[in-house]
Structures are given as C-alpha cells and as structure tokens.
UniProtKB/TrEMBL annotation, chains A, B:
Family membership: Belongs to the NAPRTase family.
Positions of the UniProt region annotated as Disordered: 333-380
Organism from which the protein derives: Glycomyces buryatensis
Record domain Quinolinate phosphoribosyl transferase C-terminal: where: 139-309
UniProt name for this protein: Nicotinate phosphoribosyltransferase
Known catalytic reactions: 5-phospho-alpha-D-ribose 1-diphosphate + nicotinate + ATP + H2O = nicotinate beta-D-ribonucleotide + ADP + phosphate + diphosphate
UniProt keyword Membrane present: no
Pathway: Cofactor biosynthesis; NAD(+) biosynthesis; nicotinate D-ribonucleotide from nicotinate: step 1/1
GO biological process, one term: NAD+ biosynthetic process via the salvage pathway
Amino acid sequence: MSVTLPRTPLYTDHYEYTMLEAALRDGSAERPCVFEVFGRRLPTGRRYGVVAGIGRLAEAIERFRFAEEDLQDLISRGVVAESTADWLRDYRFAGDIDVYSEGELYFPGSPIVTISGTFAECVLLETLTLSILNHDSAIASAAARMVTAARGRPILEMGSRRTHESAAIAASRAAYLAGFAATSNLEAGRRYDVPTAGTSAHAFTLLHESETAAFAAQIASFGTETTLLVDTYDITQGIRNAIDVAGPRLRSIRIDSGDLDVMATGARELLDELGAKDTQIVVSGDLDEYSIAALAAAPVDMYGAGTAVVVGSGAPTAQLVYKLVEVEGRPVAKRSEHKGTTGGRKTAVRRHKPTGTATEEVVVSQGEPEHQTGDKPLQVPLFRGGELTPQPTLDESRELLRQRLISIPWEGLKLSPGDPAIPVIMRHAGE
Amino acid sequence: MSVTLPRTPLYTDHYEYTMLEAALRDGSAERPCVFEVFGRRLPTGRRYGVVAGIGRLAEAIERFRFAEEDLQDLISRGVVAESTADWLRDYRFAGDIDVYSEGELYFPGSPIVTISGTFAECVLLETLTLSILNHDSAIASAAARMVTAARGRPILEMGSRRTHESAAIAASRAAYLAGFAATSNLEAGRRYDVPTAGTSAHAFTLLHESETAAFAAQIASFGTETTLLVDTYDITQGIRNAIDVAGPRLRSIRIDSGDLDVMATGARELLDELGAKDTQIVVSGDLDEYSIAALAAAPVDMYGAGTAVVVGSGAPTAQLVYKLVEVEGRPVAKRSEHKGTTGGRKTAVRRHKPTGTATEEVVVSQGEPEHQTGDKPLQVPLFRGGELTPQPTLDESRELLRQRLISIPWEGLKLSPGDPAIPVIMRHAGE
C-alpha cells in the first residue's frame, strides 16, 4: 500500500471521550473489560452475513494515535480536559482482539469480534470498529448473494459513483472479497490490489461525430482486446458498427440499457451471424442479485453491478453493535427491554456433519463448548498485547468465504427470504 | 480545517482514463464539452431533494492533482500509457463549473451541476463528483424530512457507527446542513465546525458497581450540565437514581429503548414529581422521520437519530448521473430506450407566486427562460477558469435550505409518498 491514510482517533463519537474522562477521574478506567461485536439479527430474510473489514480494522487501529493537533482540537472544543489529553498523548491499544476471520460467515449472536483490555483503551475503539465492520460486512453480504446468483460468471463492481468516495474504495474491496472479479475503482486497485477494469462510457461515443468514429478511436488505442459499448443509439446498428470496425475478434461488447435478457439474446444471434462467435457480452444497468439470477439462461458472459452492491442491496448497514460484556471477570448485560444481551466472554465453534455440512454454531459464555467431531473454532487472534498478528491476504479471505458458502446447508444460498442458514446456540458455561 | 485530506485523482473509475487515453490519441480530447449532473427521478415518493456536498466537491477538485507515485501506479498497472501520464502530470481542472447552491432544493431534471471545459479535463471528474453529491445529497434529503418531522425540536446525529468511517464525517456535515443541531462525530466537529455532543453509553453504567455509582462519576466530571442515560436496567429506578445523584437541576436524561412515547410520558411525570421540572428528555433508538413525527405529542425535548439518517432512510444514494450534453456547441444525448436525456447546456430558474411560494422550475436548453416576475436563477459559479470562487459557509447553506423549505407548496413537506413538490418544465431554446 503506497498511500498514507489519516490518523483515526477522531473517527469516534464524542461520548467515548466523555466516558473516558469520567472513568479516569473515578478510577474505573483501568478495570479489565471485554467488549464484543455482534449482530442481534440479520437483515430481514437474509440467511447469512459475511464478516468483512477485519483487515481494514487492523490498519485503522494501528493509526489510532494522537498527534498534538488532535489533542489540541479536543481540548479547544471542550471535549476533554488537559489531564485526559495527557493520558491520550501516548495512547495505543495494548490489549487483545480476537475475530471471526475476514470472509467467515456470521449469524445472529455470533461473537464476531472480542476486544479485551482496560475500559479506557477499549471504549475508544467502539465507533471506528463498528463503522468499518458495519459498512464492509453489509457490502460483502450483499455481494456474496450476487456472486451466487451469477453461477460462476464474473461480476465487475462499478458502483463507486453511487456511494461516498472513500466508502467506494472499501466497497470495491468487500465486493472482491465476496467473489467479484474486478472493480472500476482505481484507488481500490492501488490500495488493495483488486484488479481494475473499464473501457468507455456513452460520453465517449457522444464526443465523436459518429459511433463508428468512437469505436475506431478506442480500437486504435487498445486493439481488439477491449469492450465496445453498443447501446448509445441503436443496439443492432451498434453491434454491426462494432464488428465492422473491430472485426470478429473483438473481445466483448457491453449493453447498459433495455431488457437485458432480450437484448443479450438478440446480440448473441447477431454476433454469431457476423462471425464474432467468441465476442463476449457484458451487461450492466441497475443489476442486483435478483436481476442477475433472472439472466441465468441469457447468453451473458459478464455482469457489471453498481448501485445495488455499494448500498448493500436493501441492507446498507450490517447493524452490528459493540457491547461491554465483562468487567473484572464478571459478566455484565443491559437489562431494559428489547435489547437484552448475553454477558461474558464468548467462545464459539461451528459444528459440522461428517459430510462437512455445517449444522449449528455453539457459543458459550465464560467457558468452552464441549468438543465434538467436526467442530471448527471460529475465533482467531488479531491483536495480542497491542501487537498485530500476521493476517491472511485478501485473496486468502476470498477463498475462505468461497469454502464457507459450500459448507452451509443448500437452503442457505437461496435468494428468497428465510431463516438464518444455521442456528446459533447460546449457552452459559456449565449449562 | 486543520487536517490534510488525500489527493483524489484515483478516486475515479478506470474507464475515465481509458477514454482519456483514446481521446488524446485521436485528438478529440480537446473538444469543448459541457457535462451535466442531474437526477432522472427522486427516490420513490419523495417530494424534493436537497443539494449537498458542493463544498466538499470544491475541495476534492482542488485536490485532484497527480503526484509522481499516482502516475507510476497508473502506468504500472496498465491503466494508462506513458504519454497519457505525461499529459496528466500537470493536470488541473481549468474550466467552469456552475452549481445549484448547497442547501438548494432539486427535482427530477434539475441541472444541479454544469461542468464546462475540454472533454479531457471534464471526463476525469465524473466519478468523484457523483460519489460526493450522491452520498451527501441522499443524507441531507433524508435528514431534512426528519427536521420537518421534529417540528422545531433539536435532533442530534449519532449514526457514525452505522456507516463507513469517512462517510460518517460527510453524513454529519450533511445532517447539520439539513438542520440537525449537532453530531456525535468528532472529526466532523474538527473538519467542518459542526457542534458535537455526547455523554455516555450503557457501557459506562455497566462498568460500575451500580447505576448510582456510574451517575455519580459522570456528575463528578461534568456537573449537572450533562445527560444521564437511564435505561440500562429499569427506567423508573434509573430516573430516581439520576435525580437522587444529580438533584433536580440535572440538564437531561436519555432513553434509548422501549416504546419511546410511553417511556417519555412516564419519565416526564416522574421527573415533575421529583421536582426536576426543567430536566429535559432526550430519546433515541432507531428513529426515522416517521417515528419522530409519531412522537410529536410526547414530552420529548430532543431526538437522537442514527442509522436512518446515515443510510438516507431508505434511499442511500441520490442516483444522480453525470452526462455529456454538449460537444463544440452541439447538443448531444444518448438515444437508446429508457435513458433518454435532453442535450445542451441548461439554464434554470424557479418561478414563484407573488406570495413567494414556488410554482415550477423552468429549464431551457441552449437558451434562457423568458423572464417573469418572481423568477429566481438557480445556478451560481463554483469554478471560473479553474479558480474556485468564494463560497457560502455551511451555516449560510443551512439557512438557505431553511428558507427554501418554507418556499415550496405545503404539500411538499408531507412525509407521505407523493409527486415532486413542483414540476420541472424542460424546454429547448425558442420553444
């Protein structure tokens, strides 16, 4: 990664510093605590969630350090007193963090992240942790459904323009994790080594005197290993112009409007008739998992997906929460209605049949699940004593997810609304 | 602004550089062009959109400059050839940009941004422009409806944890523009001078041996000018504990769960009974414009809104597009089905009754609307010859929006689904 990313200590909510200040004053700041990140539920009808953003979280925690100007800003705006700023000056997280690996599946109640350390050092990471995981997991969870719907055909992520300019970079990364083939976003290419792709927009055709002139300009620059966008004026004529200019060895055409099933079928027939039997067809235009699935029988070679993936296809946030579950070894939980949580540090395993199919997740508070054949532990270290542990590459996480999606019961891959693919059984130690 | 933000030239889609390269090669890159940003429609049932992000766009265009490492990245990954990189080395946008002011309303077809310059210099700004405006306008448009629903009661934006960590900062800014009173996001405080607020979470109560101990710690640090969160265990007891510890001059309590109408009513009665007649009630917990409206009769003094505002309350992107509309003075438009656009540079005015109520927006392609009494021009300069013009402050934009929401027909402020508050009449010059 050749770009320098900003420090993160102000990517927080005001109340984290208020709580820190009050806890420093009364001495409770140094109490050993355990915080946990989990989701109370999946988005309505979804059957699994995909853990994403762990790699970004690790980097963001490494950048949670205060420069003098950060401290002065907090003091001058009355967020903290000088004494608290003094404590923050040398802050770096020195505790432990355990996580579900990036690319792992999660379900309601899965203890995705466990943060252990003093109250003071852990409470400051709440908002940053949730922002990253809620965004990236929402995108990866939606993108994984699109990948399933595409049945092996590649998908290009091209939604940068429909989301915040920095969120776009993270969304490209999350979509690639979920199995997308490439992204349009160049910064995601630089920062995370996601393959990038792109050829031309309608503007390039409109810039020229004719569609033929535009195609000729593109071929002159890139040869026939390019994609010509054929629907600026009339698609049939566009395809004829494309093959006229590029010849039958043109790599691909793109169709971005109209009834894509009908258009692709007509395009395939015409391309074959023109001798361009190997010219591929790329379709785009407001595709989501449902419209991708509906094109399964159409002669499509590649999909371009934009808006739906970057906004999580109806679920733009994963709604994960960051809760204090243990103080000095004692389990704690909020008890007011509707928001009850299970206290205590959790240990989680996923159980499997001898065939390898997952059957349930067992989560035990303040203890270990009884061992059974086929158990796979779900939590791995991310930080130990404040030191980042070696992490998998993005491609390794991508492969992990691919394997996990094979391991769940087949109903779990259906696009229709349903229950979580496997249940999470929550127990207290000794139960 | 004391933070250095990153350069933006790679916050783009790959195809912008591909088009640039082909256009440089065939000489079309230098053709004078006009691009336009507009929305084909509002989110379903919405009656207006709020233009937001113009100030951020101006800054981001100023940061669209190439360092040598950016160029080397583009070359090494095969995005552009050396010759194109040479052209990019001294790139800076030298054209004109006209905009609807930040805080202005827009409707389907409103020419929100008009970018004039060579094809080469304008085409590179497509993705960055759309990312910023689509995100910020989506948030401001949702937030403005919440402000209307709150009927003058202040709203605190506290959704940072439910969106990407950088999007969160922009969302705080957009919500403040829309009339929110403050944000929880500290970086938004630093970067945009948005007032910040926050006191404590349930974790702070759980950290302590008892709720009373937690309240005492908070009061010891901040005095009674603070907000005690009373719903960790039992709300009634929580309120009693709060007043026991803080006395009847406590500024406010916060309730974050349960039926907020019932809870607020009970809390008000109890506070009054305890002599805390001036202690205010803040409510939070998955509030959106509808649940805020439903609390109009409840004794609530302030709302905290999180998830709904940062995800645009059902419309997470404004779906604005960036289209080439004019080349060398000639109007151009894509003609394939469903995506027809009107070519030509547009001039827009909003018409008003003598009472000041807006009646329609008139948009003329390649000409000027006929002048009528009550017309207000909608487009103002943002860049002239590549130089940023003096811009309004965020508070001025906030005031502009407040006035504009008064100017539209009253039906336009209804939360229920409906047509755009005023129609946009699109004409060609001479029609």
